[in-house]
Amino acid sequence: MDCFAEKYKEMTGLSPNLVCHWLPTYPNRRQVRQDGRSMRTETQIVVKEEIENMHRSGIIRVAKWLSNVVSVRKKNDKMRVCVDYRDLNNATLKDIYPIPVATS
Fold this sequence. Notes:
By secondary structure, the chain is of the alpha+beta class. The chain has one domain (8-91): HIV Type 1 Reverse Transcriptase, Chain A, domain 1, CATH 3.10.10.10. It has 3 helices and 2 strands; from the N terminus they run ααββα. 0% of the residues are buried.
């Protein structure tokens, strides 16, 4: 556990240019705020806790693009918090390196 940091502030000596990621977007695309999705109360509690933990530790921050959070139940019955980035992906400049297709 002493090898891994949970917060950016614990990673001394790392430049934000190295650990932060910026996405180039088309200048003519407007920022999108997706309509909210409904979820069960138990799921909302788990999602809210996970988001608060990530925000408190500095992994995520408030952004201009607002995408929905989607919860997915894993095989071990835990919840995984995912984000629907389809609108952001449509506004992002593509590069010549395609994402590889993961096969099982």
